[in-house]
Amino acid sequence: MTNVLPDTELMTGYDVEAAITRGLLIDGVPRRVLFGEAAIAASYQAEALRIGPYPLGFLAQYVRAGGFTAALDLPEPVTGRAEGELVRGWLRAAAAGGADLRREVLFARWLAEVALLITMRRQVREEAG
User: Fold this and answer.
1) Residue 49, domain member (yes or no)
2) I need a labelling partner for 27 at 20 to 30 A (CA). Which of 21, 69, 95, 127 fits?
3) DSSP code of 80?
4) How many domains, the chain?
């Protein structure tokens, strides 16, 4: 039986950074969790700080092009202090296993997915409201 976490837990109590580190290092269930509930939780956390999909999509392209080191060297990966701390935490968790092209591409894909989830939720709200 699979445990399904409610949105309220994904919005506030989910350790996205731990899921990033595990999911990038271990294939199988940890990787599925990374691209499932961890991406959903990250999208909620980003939206709570008003981080939109465009900055995350741009950062995904930046990670794909320059890797973890280049992204961590950015003075502001996204605009704002709290916003930057959230995203910088994700970057540090992703880079914890060291530079590796495969993990950098996976993390860039994950960031793009988080951006897509934000976009989708915005579209649903616009259509409903």
Assistant:
1) yes
2) 69
3) S
4) 1
Two structure tokens written together for 9: 């837990």
Distances (CA, A) of 5 to 9, 36, 50: 6, 11, 23
- Provide the strand spans (E) within 6-86: none
Question: Would you say residue 1 lies in a domain?
Answer: no
Domain that holds residue 114: 7-128
- CA dihedral over 86, 102, 19, 47, signed as positive or negative: positive
15: left (phi over 0), alpha (psi -120 to 50) or beta: beta
Q: What is the pLDDT along the chain (129 residues), one digit of tens a residue?
A: 456 566 666 667 899 999 999 999 999 999 999 999 999 999 999 999 999 999 999 999 999 999 999 999 999 999 999 999 999 999 999 999 998 999 999 999 999 999 999 999 999 888 887
Is 21 part of a structural domain of the chain? yes
